[in-house]
Amino acid sequence: MTCRFAEKGCLAGLDLSGSIAPPDVKLNLGGDFIKESTATTFLRQRGYGWLLEVEDDDPEDNKPLLEELDIDLKDIYYKIRCVLMPMPSLGFNRQVVRDNPDFWGPLAVVLFFSMISLYGQFRVVSWIITIWIFGSLTIFLLARVLGGEVAYGQVLGVIGYSLLPLIVIAPILLVVGSFEVVSTLIKLFGVFWAAYSAASLLVGEEFKTKKPLLIYPIFLLYIYFLSLYTGV
């Protein structure tokens, strides 16, 4: 009895107070241990861990703006050089203008031509864009009727890029505008330059003896473009 009382006294003298703390749960992510909160642990234990998953960033969402819009400045610059220098002896692969058409380059050329054609007559801008779209459509339909294997996008790109010679002669016309003979010669040179550049890309060997039937409307189209610029 004495031993029992002594044992009880010993137990009574011990401090049995304390608190129960939740266990620390740590995740190993790439070698670094991250402590989870109680709520996170609760969700994982109940099978709702999928609520805590975070999607990785898609690398395609971080593309540059030019790449998102499919704008290749180097390709556009190369096509501009091909149009402005149509001589085969210069070594440019000019067929890339036709075989690899784009939209933004020709659109930029047409808009720039529209801007320099303003002279206070803002309605010219809509006319130039309209003639570019429907004039290219006319050339496309005529080419298909004559047996040419060409797409509308290719015609649209070639006709748009080939406006560059008219843009080149525009500042020259401002200087020599008072000399009627010189001005007329420069206009003819610009139209022939633009028409030759476009026709050499669109009029292939498949047309054979029918080439004049396609070259002539291309020539007339650029004469009309020039008339929108000069106001004649």
Automatic annotation (TrEMBL):
Yip1 domain: residues covered: 92-227
Family per similarity comment: Belongs to the YIP1 family.
Compartment(s): Golgi apparatus membrane; Golgi apparatus, cis-Golgi network membrane
Annotated GO biological process: endoplasmic reticulum to Golgi vesicle-mediated transport; vesicle fusion with Golgi apparatus
InterPro entries: Yip1/4-like (IPR045231), Yip1_dom (IPR006977)
Membrane-topology annotation of the record: Multi-pass membrane protein
Source organism, top-level taxon: Eukaryota
Coiled-coil residues: none
Function: Involved in the maintenance of the Golgi structure.
Keywords (A to Z) from UniProt: Golgi apparatus, Membrane, Transmembrane, Transmembrane helix
GO cellular component, one term: trans-Golgi network
Record bears the keyword Transmembrane helix: yes
Transmembrane segments: 103-120, 126-146, 158-179, 185-204, 213-231
UniProt name for this protein: Protein YIPF
Keyword Aminoacyl-tRNA synthetase: no
